[in-house]
Amino acid sequence: MSPSPARITAVDTYDIRFPTSRELDGSDAMNPDPDYSAAYVVLRTDAADGHEGHGFTFTIGRGNEVQVAAIEALRGHVVGRPVDELCADPGTLNRDLIGDSQLRWLGPEKGVMHMAIGAVVNAVWDLAARRAGKPLWQLLAGAEPEWLVRQIDFRYLTDALTPEEALTILRRGREGAEERTARLLERGYPAYTTSPGWLGYDDAKLTRLATQAVADGFRQIKLKVGADLDDDIRRCRVARAVVGPDVRMAIDANQRWDVDEAIRWTKALTEFDPYWIEEPTSPDDILGHAAIRRAVAPVKVATGEHAHNRIVFKQLLQAGAIDVLQLDAARVGGVNENLAILLLAAKFGVPVCPHAGGVGLCELVQHLAMFDYLAVSGTTDDRVVEYVDHLHDHFLDPVRIRDGHYLAPTAPGFSAAMRPESIARYTFPDGTFWAADRDDTNKKGQAA
Amino acid sequence: MSPSPARITAVDTYDIRFPTSRELDGSDAMNPDPDYSAAYVVLRTDAADGHEGHGFTFTIGRGNEVQVAAIEALRGHVVGRPVDELCADPGTLNRDLIGDSQLRWLGPEKGVMHMAIGAVVNAVWDLAARRAGKPLWQLLAGAEPEWLVRQIDFRYLTDALTPEEALTILRRGREGAEERTARLLERGYPAYTTSPGWLGYDDAKLTRLATQAVADGFRQIKLKVGADLDDDIRRCRVARAVVGPDVRMAIDANQRWDVDEAIRWTKALTEFDPYWIEEPTSPDDILGHAAIRRAVAPVKVATGEHAHNRIVFKQLLQAGAIDVLQLDAARVGGVNENLAILLLAAKFGVPVCPHAGGVGLCELVQHLAMFDYLAVSGTTDDRVVEYVDHLHDHFLDPVRIRDGHYLAPTAPGFSAAMRPESIARYTFPDGTFWAADRDDTNKKGQAA
């Protein structure tokens, strides 16, 4: 009798919230007080190797429990799957999750339900990379083009990208990969930093952090804008004076404006030579981004962290709406959908500068950018991954930044796993941090 | 001492599921086995009048519990609000819910979280109409244009529709409203029926139901297509033969196709003179719909039941992507957002033919169509509301259809309230129906 194959035995979820709103870290024109949070999932197996798969959706606080409920709604699709089969072909699970007709009604392919799929699919990739003993970027870059193409759901894409075209891009992308791998391992992947530019920081803190960013080797910083034009003019002037003319300075409105307002406001900041204007309006407004791009050139238009699926990215590219594509590792349906998005960008010749920050997004997305460099676009020209210096210490394999570059992760997996003690402390509402916080509040209430 | 004003005291939620998959009612190319469900909400107050506000999101089964969790995440915004203020200006709550920055991250304005907002906002309108002693269509049609404009969140719309333009449309819309009201009360609002056309029905059932539809006075039917072209050709031929050349026959692919496939398939059915092709591809694919429309004319292109917010509708209109706009009462952020969508359609001169069916969608959306007739578009030409003969008996104020028309509701409210006994029976998983069903399954298991 042959032993039964190892299977997924549990999909465990955690509602993890960090009290970031108390420091105004992460404050911008639309998000004044985020509590960076993760709807976190662990896939457990009965395999002898003991490996787990970790994944999460990033949220900013309230509603994280809804995101957890959505991940739990996927449990039935995952528990019981043979681990070998699952890790050899995550695309099948990806298609099953996206294709569940009853759950699909809750999107389709957008919002809470789609992000839940992304968390679970990313956890499968984490597991697959751990079992392969490789960091995810390396697993992907070493995979056969034919296999990568099979990982992608081309539904709704074929008017812009066919499987045959994707295969051609991936075959071409392998040329010179060895040399690029050596360069990546030596130098890392270029980063830019948003740390100086949060809206809640005063000019002194902005000056200090921008000076530090240049000293740390970053060649691009980013400032949040969009709440008050006079403030933005002052802050852009301060930042440009600090970093000098040669360091790129992006600005980010976090969806604050209507189309006409975006054009006016961006033009009013053009004297400070912003490199791109990010999220000038609703992430759903493909035609609006195209109109803004036509009006504000040569300032580039960037968006994508809230673009909810490959079909939105397809249209942003078809409409000529963006100069810079900002994919996010945990907004869409996971690695499989991001493979499609990277290939779409390559087809249209638009550089990918991934969104990161939040909690754990840097840890995840570096793998996708490195894969893109090694196997898709083949270049880091005009490409940078966002970096924010927040909350990395909660991860078992935190990002490493040197001289303005992400160093390539070497540990097996997707760098997604949080430290068990961080999970225990920040689980909401009963982790030790939140329980103590509640006790404090109650005591203050009684003393008053 | 003045008495404190009446307030919202509770936001009660119910996970209600009907076992419709057992009859293949509602089966289409993407949704083979829906269990029509409602994430249902009741607002309770401490007002002496005892009125409640009822609302819901329609889903098709699994994940309805996620939708309920999302409604519960809104509770803190609603409980404690003074009822008079809330009902005098639902727009303020609507903006507060959409503007909650932490919850907004889960969309923004799309999917589970946005539909939850729609359920709560619609419940407020139900409450407001009950307290006013009017059916909602009448409350809206009698409201001042200035007040209606204030109910709308124009964010992201002003490049296509300004508040001033909306006001002009509404002022013009009032002309002749008295005469139209009399006609509406006498004749009703034209409907079309999808009842004959579900994909799971055989030709005999299709023939019987299509014959019945024409006998019942409907001037338009709809057939589901998209699973198998030969089947579709046969079913379209059967249906066209039954209804004759003068009854309109729409076809509905429920998002089954890619762009090129949609064009090929629709052209292959053109000989049967389809009036419109509905949801030919992804509801997110604005540019795709535009390409399909250019290719399949004179067959019209219709979509909207899954368009997730006003920004998508704005672009469908700007891109010339649709001939027919199919708003849904419970997909977007409630009545307030649908006011914006009706005004956008009027601005662009595109007829609105609302989506209905499911559970309770007919009950809700008739109010919006009647308001559009009386106060916005001023016409029913080329306008029909979908009608499906399912599950109406679970509602306290069910739709009434006569000679292919929706008769105007006369009871105060939004016709949203389900019968208490239906709620008790079909609440999942512990309502009497589901509990008995589980017992049956267990007994069969033991007997086997």
Automatic annotation (TrEMBL), chains A, B:
Q: Residues of the signal sequence? A: none
Keywords for this entry? Lyase, Magnesium, Metal-binding
| Coiled-coil region list | none
Entry keyword Methyltransferase: no
- Assigned EC number: 4.2.1.68
Task: Identify the residues that the record assigns to the Mandelate racemase/muconate lactonizing enzyme C-terminal domain, covering every copy.
Answer: 203-299
Q: Which SUPFAM superfamilies has this protein been placed in?
A: Enolase C-terminal domain-like (SSF51604), Enolase N-terminal domain-like (SSF54826)
InterPro entries registered for this protein in UniProt: Enolase-like_C_sf, Enolase-like_N, Enolase_C-like, L-fuconate_dehydratase, Mandelate_racemase_C, Mandelate_racemase_N_dom, RHMD-like
Q: Which Gene3D superfamilies does UniProt cross-reference here?
A: Enolase-like C-terminal domain, Enolase-like, N-terminal domain
The EC class name is lyase
| Catalytic reaction list | L-fuconate = 2-dehydro-3-deoxy-L-fuconate + H2O
Specify the superkingdom: Bacteria
Cofactor(s) annotated in UniProt: Mg(2+)
One MF term in the entry's GO annotations: L-fuconate dehydratase activity
Give the protein name, as stated in the record.
L-fuconate dehydratase
- Species source reads Streptomyces spinoverrucosus
**Taxonomic classification, please?**
Bacteria, Bacillati, Actinomycetota, Actinomycetes, Kitasatosporales
